[in-house]
Amino acid sequence: MGVSIEGVGYYVPQKVLTNFDLEKMVDTSDEWITTRTGIKERRIAEGESLVDMAYKASLMALEESKTKPEEIDLIILATLTPDLSFPASACLLQARLGCNKAYAFDISAACSGFLYGLEIASSLIISNRAKKVLLVGAERLSQIVDWTDRATCVLFGDGAGAAVLSAEGEGELLASAMRSDGSYWDILYGERCGYLRMKGKELFKLAVRSMAEVCEEVIKRAGVSIADIDLVVPHQANIRIMQALAERLNIPMEKAYSNIHKYGNTSAASIPIALYEAKQEGRLKRGDLVLLTAMGGGLTWGASLLRF
């Protein structure tokens, strides 16, 4: 039994915050941000909740997959910025969508959240515990960014991405590997009722090495070669991380999808947003081998290899 992505959707807020806007807020420059991160602008939610964004992305995914809300058995929402401490934002989304048969829960794995959710959803589908799963990654990182900290405020943005998964389509999850190491928690974390904090240099080194290792593991387990990969969709954290990862894997950057220049780091939302845009641009087609990988606070990281 394969697990197929039947439809994808995304939503980003209307407000655009450019590097030139940030020049007026902190001691930075467009040239500094662009050369070190690849980011030119990011989206900021104004008057929109996390569930508002997740709802709009989910509607798009449901429509593309020709799935009715009542056909969804499970909703998994990956986020580190829920609207409330409880109930889970997934429950609020379930009610908003009218997915009356579904149970729902949030997961917190930071930037790796979508991949962790993919692992959980796939396991439940394969074991016949669910037929159709709505997997969402959504973040309002602007609410936990310290806008006086030039090292972090330039990196993050808001947005949501969603995917409908089932065992009925043409695609297949070929292999996956998930990891975590809590001893590195202080490299990237969020203060209780406070701001996001990050040690960028330390995280960079760990991210490249750790993501490369799990990517190589899933490629080997799937019985394919690097040359067989049609597209790599990494978490959109930093263009230099993506370039270093591609070099370590011996994959040309032309095969690595990036939209970080438009949205910055949207944490759990970045991979599903990138999947949607890659599909719309014709860079991701049915039957393609696509490698997903991410690393985030926890530290958490992982990789999944799909036949799309």
Which runs of at least 5 residues are low in confidence (pLDDT < 50)? none
Proportion of residues in extended strands: 25-35%
> What is the CATH fold-level name of the largest domain?
Peroxisomal Thiolase, Chain A, domain 1
Sketch the major β-sheet: 5 strands, mixed
Strand order of the largest sheet: 1-7-6-4-5
- Number of discrete helical segments: 9
Task: Tell me the helix content.
Answer: 25-40%
**Count of the domains:** 2
> In angstroms, what is the radius of gyration?
18 Å
Helix vs. strand class:
alpha/beta
CATH class of the largest domain: Alpha Beta
| SSE series | EEHHEHEHEHEEEEEHEHHHEE
Query: So, the CATH homologous superfamily of the largest domain?
Result: Thiolase/Chalcone synthase
Instruction: Count every beta strand, where a strand is a DSSP E run of 2 or more residues.
Output: 13
- Terminal Cα separation, in Å? 14 Å
What is the compact description of this entry?
The chain has 308 residues and is an alpha/beta fold.
Describe it:
This protein is of the alpha/beta class and 308 residues long. It is built from 9 helices and 13 strands. The strands form 4 sheets. It has a 5-stranded mixed sheet with strand order 1-7-6-4-5, sandwiched between helices. It has a 4-stranded mixed sheet with strand order 8-13-12-11, with helices on both faces. A two-stranded antiparallel ribbon has the order 2-3. Strand 12 and strand 13 (300-307) form a beta hairpin. The chain starts with a strand and ends with a strand. The model has no long low-confidence stretch (mean pLDDT 95).
